[in-house]
C-alpha cells in the first residue's frame, strides 16, 4: 500500500500528469482512505479475535453485562462488514462501501471500552484473591468462566497453590472436603468449603479455600504435636502428613536439645545425639522394607532433616556447647510453639535463627522432598533470615549448580511460605514485574527471580523503585498502600529473592539502588560427599558414606584424567542424577544386597552416554579401581531391542550395535533426567534414534509388554528458525495483549495431558543463549515454563524436553549442567549402513538381482578409496563429513538410475543385459565424480581426476577393480569434462549434449549468458536436483557465476511449477 501511494504521489508531481490529474487525485484519495481503513480494520480484527472466545462464555457475560452488550453490537457490525467484504470480492469495491471507515472506527472505540472494562474486571478479581496476580489473563479468564461447575477449576489449582494438585469434592453437594498433593497425599479440611455459597464468584470460594488450608495445616501440626509423645516415633510418622511430621520433629528436636543443655549442659546434648542415632537406625530399617509410596516420600524427606539435626548435635558436642544462649546453638534453625503476638490467646509455630523470629505460615507444601542441608546451606539460611528480619531481600549468587534457587525454595518450605519461582528473561518489562509485585504484596508470599541479572539494566532501575516502595510500606507497618496506581492490601511476610550467575553471557550488572535492597550470599561449591551420603541414607543404603566418597572421587578423577569437553559436567546436578538413579535401582532391585553393584550401575547409566569414544577406556579404568571386583549384570532389554530392530528394518536402516547402545543409553538417561541433550554431528543418527525409540516404546506400551498404556507423543521444532518473540510469545506493542509463541502452545498442550503417557518436546537445532536461557526453570528441578505474561506452566508427569544440537560450544554452564547428555559419534558407525540402506530400499524396481550385485560391487570398489583420497589429499570448498560425501553419491546414483531405467533407449527390448550393466557402471563413476570430486577446490580437482583414472585402471594398491570396466573414461582432459551418454552407453563431452548457441541481434549485453562447459554441466546438475527434489549447496568464491547458474535453471522452468526466492545472507 505504501509503495502504491509513493508511486501515485511521484506521478502527481510529474510535468506530464496534467491530462490525468483527475484520475491520479481520485486514485490517491482512495489509496489514502484504504490505508486508513486497513489500519483500523486490522486493529479491530486483532481485538475481536481476542475477545470473541471470552464473551462466548455465558458466565463472563453474566458478570460483565455492560461490556457484553457493547461487544455484542461490535460483533454484529464486524460480521456484517466481513460478509459484505466477502461478497464484494474486490478490494476497490469493498473499501468504497459507504460509512465503512466510520463504522470500523466506532467498533475500535467500543472495543477499547470493552478491553478497559475487562482489565478492570480482572484487576478486581485479582485484588479479591491476590494469587491470581501470578496467572496470565487467559488462565484467569479460564478459571473465572467455570462458575457452574467448581470441579473444573481443579486443573488450575497448582497454579495458585504450590502444594495442591487437586481438591476433593463431595459428590452430593460439591462441598470441598480435602486437598490432594501431587504425591497423592490427601489432607481432610477442618472445615469444608461450599463453592456454591459464593454464587458463582470463583475468587470468593478460593479465598475461603486458602483460609481453610491454613487453618487445616495449623490444626494438623498442633494435633500431631500432642500425638508425638503418645506413640512410637516410626508409628507416629505414618499417621500424619509429611509436612507436619518434619515440622513437629524439628520442634521436639529443639525442645530436647534445649532441655538437655539446661539440665546437663554438654553431656545433655550427648544423650540427645545417642537417642537420635538409635531412632535414625529404626527409620532407615523402615525405608528398606516394602512400604507405601506415600510413607516412602515422608521418610526420604524426614531422613534428610533428621541426619542434619543429628550431625548438628554431634557438632555442638565437639564444640563444647553447654548453654541455651551459646552462639553455636542460636545460629541453628529452631522451632517453637509460642503465643502469637498478633492473635492474643492463640499459640502458633514459630521459627528462630540467630536474632530472626519468623512465623510458620502453614502453607500446604504437599509431601515434597527436602534439600540436603550442608554448611553452605546453613550460611545461606542465616543470611536470608537475617535479611528477612531486617526487611530486606536476599540475593544468592554463584556458578550454576550450587543450589541458589533450591536453597530459597527449601527455606520457604522450612517456614511453610508460599513461594513462586520465576525465570527472568531480557524481554521482561517493568509492567510485567509490577503485576508480580502486586501479587507478592497482597498475598504475603515470596518470589524467587531466577537469573535476575538477565533483565535489561533500564528495567532493573525501575524494579528497584518498585521493591523499595513495598519494603517502605512494610517498615511503616501499613496495611494498605498505593503501588503503580493501585490501592493494595499488604501482608508483611511478602519478600523477594533474586539469584544470579555472574559473568555468564547476556547478564547485566545490577544498579546500585537495587543492590542496596538485597543482602548478597556467595554460593560456591557445596559438599558433594555430604549431600550424597545423606541422600543415599534416605534411599535406604547401608554403606552410604563409602559409596558417597566413591561418587565424588569418580567425578574428581574424571575431571582430571579425561579430555576436556564442553558438554562434560561434573557438578552438583551430575552427582544428584547419580543419586536419583541409585534410589530408583534400590527400589527396583530389593533383592540386590551388594550396594556397590547398584552404585556402579547408577554411575554408568548417568555418565557413560556422554563420554567420547577415546575417553570410555579411561573412565572404565577409573570405575574398575574404585569398584574392584564388581561385575555388572547385563540389563534385559531384549523386548526393546527386538522392537527397535523391527522398526529400523521397516525403514531399511541398519541396527548397528553402537546405534542400539546409544538408543538404550538415551532411554536410561531420560528415566533419570527430565531434560536431555542428544549431541553429535550430522549423520550420527540423533533424530532417527529418537523416532525409532518413540515407535518401539509406543508399540510395547500398546501390547502391554513395557510401561503399559504409556504411548509416546512427540512435538518437534527448530528453535533457531523462529524469532524469540514468536518462540515463547510477546506483548503486542500497542494493545499490550499477550500473544502465545509456538513453545508456549506446545508446552501447554503437553502439560494439560496429566496421564502417564510420555510427552517429548523436541528442540532440533543449535543451542545458544538467545533461546535456551528462557528454558532454565524447565530444565532444572522447578520443571516450569515461565512466560513474560506471568503465566507459569508446570510440566506434566512423564514429560521431557529433548534438545538435538550439533554441539554446545556457545551454551552456558548453567544450561549444560541442567541436561543429561548423550553423545553420538558418526565415525563409530561409518558409512556402510548408508550403502546398505540404499541397496535395500532405494534402487529402481526394474533392476534384477545380477544388476543389483554388479552395482553393489561397483559401490564397494569406488567408495572407500575415494572417501579416503578426498579427506586426506584434497582441499574441499567447505567442511564435509565422509557420511555426507557417501550420501551425496548415493542420492545422485539412485536418482540417475531411476531416470536411466525409464529411458526408452535402455529398455530391455532395445538392449541386452551387458549394456544395462555398462549403464549402471557409468552412472556409478559419474556420480562419484560429481559427489566426491564436486566438493574439491579447483586445484584439487586435477589430483582427484588422476587418482580416479588410476583407480579405474587398477593402478592403486589394495584397490584393484573387481572386473574389467567397459566403457573406460576417455584419457583426454579431466574426468569432470564427461557425462554419461545412454545411446552407446558410454561417455560424451558436455558440449556435445547441447546445440550450438546463437545469440539474437536484439539481445542486450548484460542479459547474454555465454554457453561454456561450466554453464552446461552446472545447469544439468541443477535441473536434475530440482527435478528430483535434492537439496543443493553451491559453494565458491565471489564472481564464479553461482547466482547466474541458479537463475538460468529456475527461469527455464515452466511458470506454473516455479516459485523461487533469492536471499542474500
From TrEMBL:
<dbReference type="InterPro" id="IPR035699">
    <property type="entry name" value="AAA_6"/>
</dbReference>
<dbReference type="InterPro" id="IPR042228">
    <property type="entry name" value="Dynein_linker_3"/>
</dbReference>
<dbReference type="InterPro" id="IPR043157">
    <property type="entry name" value="Dynein_AAA1S"/>
</dbReference>
<keyword id="KW-0969">Cilium</keyword>
<keyword id="KW-0963">Cytoplasm</keyword>
<dbReference type="InterPro" id="IPR041466">
    <property type="entry name" value="Dynein_AAA5_ext"/>
</dbReference>
<feature type="domain" description="Dynein heavy chain linker">
    <location>
        <begin position="1"/>
        <end position="221"/>
    </location>
</feature>
<dbReference type="GO" id="GO:0005524">
    <property type="term" value="F:ATP binding"/>
</dbReference>
<keyword id="KW-0505">Motor protein</keyword>
<dbReference type="Pfam" id="PF08393">
    <property type="entry name" value="DHC_N2"/>
</dbReference>
<dbReference type="Pfam" id="PF12774">
    <property type="entry name" value="AAA_6"/>
</dbReference>
<dbReference type="InterPro" id="IPR042222">
    <property type="entry name" value="Dynein_2_N"/>
</dbReference>
<keyword id="KW-0966">Cell projection</keyword>
<keyword id="KW-0493">Microtubule</keyword>
<dbReference type="InterPro" id="IPR026983">
    <property type="entry name" value="DHC"/>
</dbReference>
<feature type="domain" description="Dynein heavy chain hydrolytic ATP-binding dynein motor region">
    <location>
        <begin position="360"/>
        <end position="687"/>
    </location>
</feature>
<dbReference type="InterPro" id="IPR027417">
    <property type="entry name" value="P-loop_NTPase"/>
</dbReference>
<dbReference type="GO" id="GO:0051959">
    <property type="term" value="F:dynein light intermediate chain binding"/>
</dbReference>
<feature type="domain" description="Dynein heavy chain AAA 5 extension">
    <location>
        <begin position="855"/>
        <end position="992"/>
    </location>
</feature>
<dbReference type="GO" id="GO:0005874">
    <property type="term" value="C:microtubule"/>
</dbReference>
<keyword id="KW-0547">Nucleotide-binding</keyword>
<keyword id="KW-0067">ATP-binding</keyword>
<dbReference type="Pfam" id="PF17852">
    <property type="entry name" value="Dynein_AAA_lid"/>
</dbReference>
<protein>
    <submittedName>
        <fullName>Dnah12 protein</fullName>
    </submittedName>
</protein>
<dbReference type="InterPro" id="IPR013602">
    <property type="entry name" value="Dynein_heavy_linker"/>
</dbReference>
<dbReference type="Pfam" id="PF12775">
    <property type="entry name" value="AAA_7"/>
</dbReference>
<dbReference type="GO" id="GO:0030286">
    <property type="term" value="C:dynein complex"/>
</dbReference>
<dbReference type="GO" id="GO:0007018">
    <property type="term" value="P:microtubule-based movement"/>
</dbReference>
<dbReference type="GO" id="GO:0045505">
    <property type="term" value="F:dynein intermediate chain binding"/>
</dbReference>
<keyword id="KW-0175">Coiled coil</keyword>
<keyword id="KW-0206">Cytoskeleton</keyword>
<keyword id="KW-0243">Dynein</keyword>
<comment type="similarity">
    <text>Belongs to the dynein heavy chain family.</text>
</comment>
<dbReference type="GO" id="GO:0005930">
    <property type="term" value="C:axoneme"/>
</dbReference>
